[in-house]
Write a structure and sequence with these properties.
Layout: H1 2-12, H2 17-22, H3 27-41, E1 47-53, E2 58-61, E3 65-74, E4 81-84, E5 91-96, E6 99-104, E7 110-113, E8 115-121, E9 127-128, E10 134-140, E11 145-148, E12 154-155, E13 161-162, E14 166-169, E15 175-179, E16 184-186, E17 191-198, E18 203-205, E19 210-215, E20 218-226, E21 232-238, E22 250-256, E23 261-263, E24 282-284, E25 291-295, E26 300-302, E27 307-314, E28 318-321, E29 328-333, E30 336-344, E31 350-356, E32 362-363, E33 368-369, E34 379-382, E35 400-403, E36 409-413, E37 418-420, E38 425-432, E39 437-439, E40 444-449, E41 452-460, E42 466-472, E43 478-479, E44 484-490, E45 495-497, E46 516-519, E47 525-529, E48 534-536, E49 541-548, E50 553-556, E51 563-568, E52 571-579, E53 585-591, E54 603-609, E55 617-620, E56 639-641
Helix pairs in contact: 1-3
Length: about 650
């Protein structure tokens, strides 16, 4: 402006300021003022945006309209603008979490416009969850024009501004999964629960939605019972007397709103249609099983350890649950009450109950059996959940006799106290009071590791006074308070007899095993922390921290270190172990070489590697479990290697 004013000074003439103010306007000074106004209009717009009137705070759903109004200011005498949309409609760009949206001008056109109104209608998929919608400067004219009514310029730029508390949710809840009852047969009073999982929390109001069921050709309804306010709704139907479906119920159509609404917090209507998962295995049946026949043991004299099996055949398949007790049949052997305990057959129509003759038991005129089958805390039901009728007709069995004196177990040897890793074998020695022989199969000793029953298999010892049983620990097994040896040796088709042929008495007092602990959980890689994103060049270090599920110890000889394999520009490199042994975090390091180049990001290859000779290198936990080397490679596309010049990114 100083150059122009110097030029104007020459144009007006060197007249004293006071004289120029007091003398009449001359044509020369009029032209000067006009020129000054023209020059000023080139640098200062006649109309500009001074502020915005934003939508009120709140949550806006799909289809809702949000108004953004630009408030204008003017430098001259104008107080209005002319909006012309004949060749294009101006728009305002707003920034949502889901992306940018162009909001079209929606105010009046022509002259006399005092504010600029832009209207945004929430579209499908639009989302801004933090309530901050940023308005992006400038307004896009898109071929349209905005000018002051008296002429001049309009400045479409404006200072940064954003809403507060204006949440946009244009994503209606969608059904992500439908869960039906487990395959099985359901009886009277059984509950069939169906869950509908949405992509977000939903609210149920105004009625009771329901699902339509086809049960054997009859329409039933599973009514909504719970879940409003969460993303999972539960629908339930209780089987009624007379319901029957032998080839699978049907789940018909989608959710029947039945006068209700299901919406998200923004008010978007949730989806109700879905594809039904298979329901052919969900059966309904309410017929009570009964015992139709019994097969007793064959006539004969049974020695110690011999099995007396009783087979009960029902009118339909039944399921035995022994979680809280094992069903049994009461027997009388001589004057002693014993029990034939449920053995096998669950899921079929025939259940087997077994009694194993104990040392000292004697019955020379035939055992007797008592009705009914005793549940003993267990259950016997059909597939529909109906309790079986356990009464039966008692019959004499004079030909089934018992006689036996057997070898006895007088001691059980156990492994030394300590913590044992995966693949370690635990050996147990069963000492008898006389030599015994094993033949015809492989007996096993029942032990409990953690809360799992395991079988220690017979290994050797036949012909001597003790038998050795061994169990090799499987990866993943844990027992922090000591394994348990159960008072059960299973014959598994074998015999354990003395020289006379009497089956040994296999009962014993379990040894104290609280000090025999198990940690067969292999350390796994939980996370790999990588270097910061950036460009790395020759001699720079790339450090990778591998976090394990438990502390590990690194052992290596002659420099044979474990390593991570890196793929750098098509070449496999080694990031070797540096530190961390004895903790759950190991550091691996690679120094960038001169020939390395990878402009689109390196890759980490699974599994974690070590030299082929495991004697030279190992990573184990404190009890000796080898690590699980596989892992999910982290994202490393931002770690670039730039050693050579001239490569494009």
């Amino acid at each position: 402006m100083s150059i122009w004013y110097k030029w104007l000074g020459r144009l007006v003439g060197k007249v004293a300021p006071a004289a120029r103010r007091n003398r009449p306007r001359a044509p020369t000074s009029w032209r000067a003022r006009l020129l000054i106004e023209t020059l000023e209009s080139r640098t200062t717009p006649d109309a500009s945006i001074t502020s915005w009137t934003l939508p009120p705070a709140g949550t806006y759903k799909l289809g809702d309209v949000l108004n953004f109004t630009a408030n204008l200011s003017f430098t001259g005498a104008d107080s209005n603008v002319t909006v012309n949309t004949a060749s294009g409609t101006p728009s305002l760009t707003i920034q949502l979490d889901s992306g940018t949206v162009n909001v079209p001008y929606a105010g009046p056109t022509g002259t006399g416009v005092t504010t600029l109104l832009f209207q945004y209608t929430v579209g499908l998929g639009d989302l801004d969850s933090d309530g901050t919608i940023n308005l992006v400067s400038p307004i896009q004219l898109n071929g349209g024009t905005i000018t002051p009514d008296g002429g001049g310029t309009f400045d479409p730029t404006f200072a940064a501004v954003a809403t507060s508390g204006t949440v946009v949710d244009g994503v209606p809840p969608s059904i992500t999964s439908v869960t039906v009852p487990s395959n099985g047969t359901y009886g009277i009073g059984a509950t069939l629960n169906f869950t509908i999982t949405y992509s977000e929390n939903v609210l149920v109001s105004g009625g009771t939605p329901r699902l339509t069921l086809d049960i054997g050709g009859t329409t039933r309804f599973a009514n909504y019972v719970s879940g409003s306010g969460s993303n999972t709704l539960t629908f339930s139907y209780t089987v009624q007397a007379g319901d029957n479906d032998t080839n699978g119920i049907g789940l018909v159509g989608g959710i029947d709103l039945n006068g209700a609404t299901i919406r998200d917090a923004a008010g978007n209507d949730a989806a109700t249609a879905f594809t039904s998962p298979p329901t052919g295995g969900i059966l309904v049946d309410g017929i009570v099983p009964t015992i139709v026949s019994i097969t007793p043991p064959a006539n004969g004299t049974y020695k110690t350890g011999d099995n007396l099996d009783f087979q009960f055949t029902f009118s339909e398949p039944v399921v035995v649950n022994t979680a809280t007790g094992t069903p049994r049949v009461q027997l009388t052997v001589g004057s002693t009450t014993v029990y034939a305990t449920y053995l096998t057959g669950s899921g079929t129509a025939t259940l087997t109950f077994r009694y194993t003759v104990q040392a000292g038991h004697l019955d020379t005129d035939g055992i007797t059996v008592a009705s009914p089958i005793q549940l003993n805390g267990g259950t016997i039901k059909d597939n529909a959940g109906n309790d079986a009728d356990l009464n039966f007709t008692v019959w004499p069995m004079p030909g089934v006799q018992v006689d036996g004196v057997a070898p006895n177990i007088n001691n059980v040897g156990k492994p030394a106290d300590g913590t044992y890793p995966a693949n370690k074998r635990l050996d147990f020695r069963i000492f008898f009071d006389q030599p015994v022989n094993v033949s015809g199969g492989t007996p096993s000793l029942l032990i409990r590791v953690g809360n799992q029953l395991r079988e220690a298999q017979y290994l050797w010892g036949s012909g001597g006074n003790y038998l050795v049983f061994g169990y090799r620990l499987q990866p993943g097994e844990v027992d922090n308070d000591g394994i348990e040896v159960l008072n059960v040796i299973m014959l598994n088709g074998a015999t354990i007899r003395d020289a006379a042929g009497n089956d040994a008495d296999l009962s014993f007092t379990p040894p104290a095993t609280a000090g025999i602990k198990v940690d067969a959980v292999l350390p796994r890689i939980e996370e790999i922390q990588v270097p910061q994103n950036g460009n790395y060049t020759k001699d720079q270090e790339l450090n990778f921290t591998v976090r394990f599920s438990k502390p590990v110890f690194v052992n290596f000889t002659n420099g044979h270190k474990p390593f991570l394999r890196l793929l750098i520009g098509g070449r496999v490199r080694k990031a070797e172990y540096v530190s961390g042994s004895g903790t759950n975090q190991l550091v691996f390091r690679y120094v960038v070489q001169e020939e390395d180049q990878d402009i689109d990001g390196i890759n980490i290859l699974t599994p974690l590697a070590r030299p082929r000779n495991t004697v030279q290198s190992s990573i184990r936990d404190s009890v000796g479990n080898q690590i699980l080397p596989d892992f999910t490679p982290p994202i490393t596309t931002g770690i670039r290697i730039r050693v050579r010049n001239g490569d494009e990114s």
